[in-house]
Specification:
By secondary structure, the chain is an alpha/beta fold. The protein has 2 domains: 275 residues, Isopropylmalate Dehydrogenase; 147 residues, Isopropylmalate Dehydrogenase. 37% of the residues lie in helices and 18% in strands. It has 13 helices and 18 strands. An 11-stranded mixed sheet has the order 1-6-5-7-16-15-8-9-14-12-13, with helices on both faces. The longest helix has 19 residues. The radius of gyration is 22 Å and the shape is globular. The protein starts with a strand and ends with a helix. The N terminus is likely disordered. The structure holds 3-isopropylmalic acid (IPM) and magnesium ion (MG).
């Protein structure tokens, strides 16, 4: 079920009428909701008190965005609905406008009402925003503001960007086998990196501007990299926790030979490392890291870094995984009072790719894998997340590929290049039959 953007009271009313869960009435009570957007299945007891029937109902805000955003997020929705049918969960989707299409219809990339609805949902699934149509707008009116506004407004400070080379996509990786094996501790031609990018601080959110009176041409412009201790500590804890569930290695990437803010990150990392004695902590300058990623990617487990360095390095790492069309991401915040789940926002790391929009060639797998991350990180539905990841893996085993993940060495595999619709349908079918 999808509901288009509507003023809040109307939206509440419509939601209460058309949510799928309303079809299922618990014995001895009528179906009610603890709040119109809260997403819990509940019944009303004889004394009028609301009681919850189960925890299997999730309300997801959906911002399809621009360019290829709508076509790939709709595939992620298909997958979640398949998971819902298979595992007995109900996913209610509330479609919201953000980015370029919101500018077209409301004049601003992210309205306060949209942010408020997104905040009330259990999680947010996002398509990329932006395109040439909006490129010449002033900075504060560009589609990308929606992304930054949602990240800051939802407080999702830790951005998890896994970069893994799936065995099926080895031929799509630009690195030679011997480069891959040399740095892999087990001598295998692959790597498995998790980039943890700080997402709501640093230069993307710091003080910025131009000098001058606004009438005459400015002679300088500035952006500021500033981090507080608390901002650094919380993302470090997320990264250390992730490392403790993986191979136990964490590398702080910074530019501590030049930047004071980087030296601050290092000091705090050294202090925090003392709390995680089982994790091996290392430090690397960002320019070196850019080189090491293509020289010896197997050396990395978890990389933790600032907003801007994480943005850049994750694009670089994505190419090693075969295609940026494969990389999902999860942005996680704290579990605040009144919320059932921690704040969570899920998006492929690729952009809106307006040049290929609507042509049935975009790779929907990053969006589908982002839905898997939502199940894992927001709702602790590990079994369901794995089911999606297995279905993607089996679909690739069958030889189906979108153009971007085609093998570089032609004629050596059983690959079949298909479009967005066909590869997503294959994942759904595999999931249904699993
Ligand atoms: C990303 C993107 C965004 C970012 C842009 C579109 C604002 O590049 O998610 O990596 O810089 O964070
Ligand atoms: Mg980026």
């Amino acid at each position: 079920m999808r509901v288009a953007q509507t003023p809040l009271p109307l939206l509440y009313e419509r939601l209460a009428v058309c949510r799928r869960v309303a079809d299922v009435k618990p014995a001895g009570g009528r179906v009610a909701d603890r709040s119109p957007l809260a997403g819990g299945r509940a019944g009303v007891a004889g004394n009028g008190a609301i009681h919850y029937i189960n925890n299997m109902n999730y309300t997801i805000a959906l911002t399809p965005g621009d360019g290829i955003g709508p076509e790939v997020t709709s595939k992620a929705v298909d997958i979640l609905e398949t998971i819902g049918d298979k595992f007995g969960h109900t996913f209610n989707f509330i479609e919201l406008e953000a980015g370029g299409r919101a500018i077209d219809s409301t004049g601003e990339p992210l309205s306060a009402a949209t942010l408020e609805i997104a905040r009330q949902c259990d999680a947010l699934l996002l398509g990329a925003v932006g395109g040439p149509k909006w490129e010449n707008l002033p900075g504060n009116l560009r589609p990308e503001r929606a992304l930054l506004g949602l990240r800051a407004g939802l407080g999702v400070f830790a951005n998890l960007r896994p970069a893994t080379l799936l065995p099926q996509l080895k031929d799509a990786c630009p690195l030679k086998d011997e480069v891959l094996t040399a740095s892999n501790p087990e001598g295998k031609p692959n790597f498995d990196i998790l980039i943890v990018r700080e997402l709501t601080g640093g230069i993307y959110f710091g003080e910025h501007g131009r000098d001058g009176d606004g009438k005459n041409a400015a002679s300088s412009a500035f952006d500021t990299e500033r981090y507080t201790r608390a901002e650094i500590e919380r993302v470090l804890h997320t990264a250390y926790n992730a490392a403790s569930k993986r191979r136990g290695k964490l590398c702080l990437v910074d530019k501590a030979n030049v930047l004071e803010s980087s030296r601050f990150w290092r000091e705090i990392t050294t202090e925090t490392a003392a709390e995680y004695k089982n994790i091996e902590t290392t430090y690397m300058y960002v320019d070196n890291c850019a080189m090491q990623l293509i020289r010896a990617p197997g050396q990395f487990d978890v990389i933790v870094t600032s907003n801007i360095f994480g943005d850049i390095l994750s694009d670089e790492a994505s190419v090693l995984s075969g295609s940026i069309g494969m990389l999902a991401s999860a942005s996680i915040g704290a579990k605040s009072a009144g919320r059932k789940y921690p704040a969570g926002m899920y998006e492929p790391i690729h952009g809106s790719a307006p040049d290929i929009a609507g042509k049935d060639i975009a790779n929907p797998l990053a969006a589908i894998l982002s839905a898997a991350m939502m199940l894992r990180y927001s709702f602790s539905l590990e079994k369901e997340a794995l089911a999606i990841e297995n279905a993607v893996s089996k679909t690739l085993d069958s030889g189906l590929r979108t153009k971007d993940i085609a093998s570089r060495t032609k004629g050596t595999t059983n690959e079949k290049i298909v479009g967005t619709n066909a590869i997503a349908a294959a994942v759904v079918k595999t999931l249904e039959n699993e």
